[in-house]
Amino acid sequence: MNRTFQVDLRGIVDLLSHHLYSSPRVYLRELMQNAVDATTAAGTDGATIAVEVDGRTLTISDSGIGLTEAQVHEFLATIGRSAKRDDLGFARHEFLGQFGIGLLSAFLVADDVRVVTRCGDAPAVAWVGRADGTYTVGPAQRASAGTTVTLTARPGCEQWFAVPTVIELARLYGGLLPHPVTVNGETVSGEPPWRADGADGDRTPGQRRADLVGYAQDTFGFTPFDVVELSVPEAGLTGLAFVLPFAASPAARAGHRVYLKRMLLSESATDLLPDWAFFARCVVDSGELRPTASREALHADSLLDSTREALGDALRGWLVDLGRTDPARLNQFLGIHHLGVKALALHDDEMLRLVDQWWPMETNVGQMTLADFRARYGTVRYSATTDDFRQLAAVAAAQNLPLVNGGYTYDAEIIERLPALDAELTVARLEPSDLATRFEALEPAAELALRPFLLAAQRGMDPFGCDVVLRAFEPASLPVLFLVDRAAAFQSELRATRERADELWAGVLSAFEKPAEDRPQLVLNHRSPLVRRICRLTEPDLVRLAVESLYGQALLLGYHPIRPADAALLNRSFLGLLDQAVPTTEDLP
Ligand SMILES: Nc1ncnc2c1ncn2[C@@H]1O[C@H](COP(=O)(O)OP(=O)(O)OP(=O)(O)O)[C@@H](O)[C@H]1O
After folding, report:
1. Dihedral sign of CA atoms 326, 331, 335, 339 in order
2. CA–CA separation, 528 vs 546, rounded Å?
3. Of 68, 384, 533, 537, which is least packed with CB atoms within 10 Å of its CB?
4. Whose CA is nearest to atom 29 of ligand 1?
5. pLDDT digits (tens, 9 = 90+) for 376-433
6. CATH label, 444-484+520-585, candidates 2.40.30, 2.60.40, 1.25.40, 1.20.120
7. What is the pTM of this model?
8. 359-430 has which fold?
9. What is the Cα–Cα distance from 375 to 377, expressed in whole angstroms?
10. CB 64 less than 6 A from any atom of ligand 1
């Protein structure tokens, strides 16, 4: 025997209010939506949808298609049944509604819903549905076709019937509806500010622009850096992207204002633009994108994917155009949003070109774009970190090695990706230890003569795990360099940790420590007059003091981490030097 499902309306309303809709306020949207659809169905464009509200009772009247008594039973009293689907059950294109549940949202704020409706010349019908799941139908009086829905606030829900609240909500949801909507006689609907047709007839481009900027100020609270007009025909989408005038975190996704068929869907839709386009906030209206059942978010489907891509293309095009037509302004834009653009350049050639041509990088020959750098020096030689750059900049410059600081966020990766623009183009990472290959060794005889000094110096440096070498390099004004390559840097960190760790961990850590070959190097510059004088010292204590001082100086100069032992050394050598410099009491006059 076939039986029919029973529906517990209270259970369903509870489901809607706690799990589907984010707030009871959506009841007004659903009522407006039904009135709009009925008006559309009747073809009575221009007929006003009138909301009357007094703080406790709300009525909404339309001159739309209305319902016959049979339809009242079929559509109003059947949950999940909608007149807005075609014979195959697909949502009909011209309507906002499709799910057949919207009217139930009235029960979020009222115990019963009263509908008086008339379809054409058929007799008017009064329907009263109650939250307990029962309804009554009876005859009614109504002068012309259309529908009036009346709700009375359930005790505790009066806030949703307050006149200012209803005006605000009607404006929020229905502000761009194609049919005129009034609340207590006040019109709340109007044309989207970006519509080019009709309304634009007597607007000059300047006025139009001022209107769009004004819209951003009113709705988003900022004066946009620029306004980009959006159009994606396949999604029936038009709208605007406002470029943020302030830096936004790539992680914090901006919310966009999305209208579907000119009814507000969301003030904070997050999946409209590609992630990289975090520098823009949009307001759009689409005739084709679909809502989720709550009507508070966009349904994720392939149309949304292709729309997102098309909107991304529009913003990318805007950027590229700006570079072509107004470089100064593009520089301003990059000043605000370089992080996002650089993040994008990591996987987008167009953006990579933009950064290459327009973003000034720090180099040891002054600020310049990568494109300029390449034009002047060919190979893009770069350091991977800012610390490396600080160590290398002066030495590299003295050796005619122009060098880019790749240490800022994304810069090294961007430089490494440059060959994607042009296979001929070469980039090379410079490590501090690479410099060693450019240092000249001393004549064997000279080296031999300095051996006793070097041995003494090495003994002094052994406790610090570093090798002392003597080389000749430019600039002569730089007496010493502390060179750590990547592996050696790791080792020295390990050592520093081990010094602080307790015995058990020290044992574990020392298993990682490799002997000698990767030790950092203290490179003394034999071209430095000071170093030459130091090399002539014979008194072991003085040699030690001089070498320790040079070591401390090199650590500070290269922004190397200072371990406790290093700090003690700095202190000791500073005092030692003072002690040497200041005459002893016997010598004082
Ligand atoms: N003002 C109205 N004028 C004429 N018919 C109406 C009106 N309001 C509701 N209806 C009828 O009641 C049906 C159910 O309305 P309901 O709001 O529950 O669902 P829907 O609008 O079809 O879809 P959705 O759940 O997406 O809003 C509608 O399909 C429509 O036939």
Report:
1. positive
2. 14
3. 533
4. 82
5. 999 999 999 998 898 888 888 888 889 999 999 999 999 999 999 999 999 999 887 7
6. 1.20.120
7. 0.77
8. Rossmann fold (3.40.50)
9. 6
10. yes
Q: What would the CATH number be for the domain defined by 9-187?
A: 3.30.565.10
Choice from 40, 63, 75 to test ligand 1 binding pocket (greatest atom count within 8 A of CB): 75
In the chain, where the domains are located: 9-187, 205-324, 359-430, 444-484+520-585
Atom 28 of ligand 1 has which residue's CA nearest to it?
82
What is the β-pairing status of strands 380-383 and 427-429?
A: parallel
Going by their DSSP bridges, the two strands 237-243 and 226-232 should be labelled as: antiparallel
How high does pLDDT run on average in the chain? Answer: 89
Q: Is any atom of ligand 1 closer than 6 Å to the C-beta of 76?
A: yes
- The yes/no answer to whether this complex scores an ipTM above 0.90 is yes
Residue 348 labelled as part of a binding site:
no
Nearest residue by C-alpha to atom 21 in ligand 1: 97
Counting ligand 1 atoms within 8 A of each CB, the residue from 34, 51, 95 with the most, and so the one to mutate, is 34
Write the residue with the smallest CA distance to atom 30 of ligand 1.
83
Instruction: Render pLDDT for 560-587 as a digit per residue (tens, 0 to 9).
Output: 888 899 999 999 999 999 998 888 777 6
The verdict on whether residue 34 carries a ligand-binding annotation is yes
Closest CA to 34 of 89, 97, 80, 85: 97
